[in-house]
Amino acid sequence: MVPHLVTALTGPINELEQRILDGMPAIERWFRLEWMEHTPPFYTAVDVRNAGFKLAPVDANFFPGGWNYLTTEMLPLAVQAAQAAIEKICPEARNLLVIPENRGRNTSYMANVAQLVRIFQMAGLNVRVGSIDPAVKSPKKVDLPDGSTVCLEPVVRTKRRLGLKNFDPCTILLNTDLAAGTPGILEDLHEQYLLPPLHAGWSVRRKSNHLHSYEEVSKRFGKLLGIDPWLIQSIYARAEGVDLARGKGVEGLTAAVDQVLTKVRRKYKEYGINEKPFVIVKSENGASSLPISTIRDVKELEALTKKPRQKAMAGATTDDAGPTDVIVQEGVLTRERVHDGMAEPVVYMMDRYVVGGFYRVHPDRGADESLALPGASFVPLAFSQSGHLPQPGAKPGASAPNRFYMYGVIGRLAMVAASYELEATNPEAEVYE
Amino acid sequence: MVPHLVTALTGPINELEQRILDGMPAIERWFRLEWMEHTPPFYTAVDVRNAGFKLAPVDANFFPGGWNYLTTEMLPLAVQAAQAAIEKICPEARNLLVIPENRGRNTSYMANVAQLVRIFQMAGLNVRVGSIDPAVKSPKKVDLPDGSTVCLEPVVRTKRRLGLKNFDPCTILLNTDLAAGTPGILEDLHEQYLLPPLHAGWSVRRKSNHLHSYEEVSKRFGKLLGIDPWLIQSIYARAEGVDLARGKGVEGLTAAVDQVLTKVRRKYKEYGINEKPFVIVKSENGASSLPISTIRDVKELEALTKKPRQKAMAGATTDDAGPTDVIVQEGVLTRERVHDGMAEPVVYMMDRYVVGGFYRVHPDRGADESLALPGASFVPLAFSQSGHLPQPGAKPGASAPNRFYMYGVIGRLAMVAASYELEATNPEAEVYE
């Protein structure tokens, strides 16, 4: 069904896998109880790295693109999950407005928007796409390679509502991570459901809040399964006011890198892991120009300070970064390869349900480097076929489904952490009416 | 994907199909609002007949077997729907006891039980199978053709709870329609969730209650779509105290048959349908020995009264029927054929979601006869692939998915009627605590 994934599924994660499979009823019940108390983000994509000896999420995206990279088999699952989500939030809903990123006519991204439109239409909503790009002044049809089209229409803002000409949505779905800051046009929309909320945007979010929540979640989950939470989590530290170009905050950063590397070394020793530890240095928010770097030794920091300031990714938009707060996170090796490229699974969730996923594959990167860079390609995982369903009785490690179930568990743990994070950072949390 | 279904999808139901496709967002919203007010049955299978000019449900089963006839692709959808159902009913659930029919080692039926066990295990429950058959005195393994096994264990009843040795379930799922009457061992279980409730059993249910509810539902749905509700519904009448063997109640039955045939003839004339109307005569409950008969003319009733009393189906268990109340229901032709046999789609639902379906095919029956008889075979419909999802823009009639969506709508209408029926007949409805 996804034959090139065979190589991505070898390797010795068997003990952890066995624990997770054995614990399935307890795990599912644990999630059910979590969702009684907490609200999952509307949709989430989680990058998972599988080092063989450990398995951890490395990023949680609250405005996932890439829905077009999931197989068509996952569509009914996504639709069913979308129906459940709508029912919970606003069963009376008729009209949904999708706000995409301002990426103009980028057809790969627009194919993602088209897929989202399809999902919510099939869930029973009238769906239209509203651009908040000031350059979009009249409806623009974007033709996609598969022959379909997406119509981008300029949004119309009234005092209290956002819509399109002749289209008044009750729910607005953001598919833009707002890394450049929250545009005023999205503020003070108290009459409409705005999903995800504005404080989920990357100009507001801080990675440490998520990591802190995930630490809590992984401890509790580790206790449930009787495992060291480190096996499903990354050690991290924080350094404030770092400006590498101007040589500021380097001391704090060095200390943080040293601290994390030391802790990881200790863990590797404890588990007899014969690998070189490394950390990933990245900025606290998604709007910084700090590149995501792999550091294997404190000495490598020096080289980093000498590099000319550069944009990390096409998405980074702040021009002069100035000092930024930095996260130093234990790096998780990836032991998975697809088509000879390094691969990491990305798990897609809608409401509380795993609905699909793909492998992000980069041909030119190492096992200890970020793959989320230009040049990456995407290989769909048919989670929907039987992918996220374990086959009871199958030998651990031997069957693809078992491992995918595990990825779905880790993805959902990050989603539980995300719900804690959004609750803790909700600016309206203490406003009672 | 299901190539032999091509022939089942020709024919001129295009206008109704187009209405249903055009109305999709309104239809889905209508269902959402219904489920705010009403609780769907836990699981439901609905037999649908497609006459080309009309499309109607002919039976709604609250204890569906046949889960093994659905494709493996539907499994994730069923699991996701089961998760949603469990979450709603009892998120704390750990243990689920499935009570199957007393069919001994019938492997076809037991394969259905095995599939149900699989679905609920994957949804995160500890699932075991408890037999209420007094002949089952110790655990019995039943080997299935696919190499798996089901273990049937004798139930253990305490004063207030039902379980197995060392297994105390919080929820009990019935997969037996209780046509022979409600066994005492299932009564007074006030501490556990018993699903579906006992009054959904065939010894208690009356078909007229369902038909009455469906009439109401189809009127409201017809208004929503601006269509004659007759296009999605069967005309029916009721005759009381019929005992054909003893010649009792024949007059009332004749009047009912005449009345329905006359009404149907009028409708056929109105729509210019050049077919011979017919009715289906069946008993009010599922426990009667009255055979399901097709009557094309009042005169045929005579022949029926002369037939020796016989059991309709293997499932009928009442030995001396005595007078029974009878339903005379407009027959709906089936215009669908699979493998040269007459076929009717059966839509499977879990909670409020369509999760799959199959064609029931009978090689020896006519377009105006019941197919639910020994000799029927089952051809899976891959609803789950993209089957119950309409492809917007596809020419009506030309694409399989469009018709399957329509079947899912009709199936869900019958499910809404079922929820009305179960509410109206709930013996505990007026007990407030």
Question: What would you note in describing this structure?
Answer:
- The structure is a homodimer of 433-residue chains.
- Chain A is of the alpha+beta class and 433 residues long.
- The first copy, chain A, is globular and about 65 Å long.
- The first copy, chain A, folds into 2 domains: 5-64 and 205-424, no CATH class; 67-200, Glutamate-cysteine ligase, N-terminal domain (Rossmann fold, 3-Layer(aba) Sandwich).
- Mean pLDDT of chain A is 85; it is low at 1-7, 308-319, 383-389 and 395-401.
- In chain A, a hairpin with a 5-residue loop joins strand 5 (140-143) and strand 6.
- The first copy, chain A, has helices spanning 14-22, 24-37, 75-89, 107-122, 207-225, 250-271, 300-306, 383-387, 400-424, and strands at 43-50, 55-61, 95-100, 126-131, 140-143, 149-154, 156-157, 162-163, 171-175, 193-195, 236-242, 279-283, 293-295, 324-330, 336-338, 341-350, 353-362, 377-381.
- In chain A, strands 1, 2, 15, 16, 17 and 18 form a 6-stranded antiparallel β-sheet that branches. The first copy, chain A, has a 6-stranded mixed β-sheet with strand order 5-6-4-3-9-10. In chain A, strands 11-14-12-13 form a 4-stranded antiparallel β-sheet, with helices on both faces.
Topology:
The structure is a homodimer of 433-residue chains.
Chain A: H1 14-22, H2 24-37, E1 43-50, E2 55-61, H3 75-89, E3 95-100, H4 107-122, E4 126-131, E5 140-143, E6 149-154, E7 156-157, E8 162-163, E9 171-175, E10 193-195, H5 207-225, E11 236-242, H6 250-271, E12 279-283, E13 293-295, H7 300-306, E14 324-330, E15 336-338, E16 341-350, E17 353-362, E18 377-381, H8 383-387, H9 400-424
Parallel strand pairs in A: 3-4, 3-9, 4-6, 9-10
Antiparallel strand pairs in A: 1-2, 1-16, 5-6, 7-8, 11-14, 12-13, 12-14, 15-16, 16-17, 17-18
Helix pairs in contact in A: 2-9, 5-9
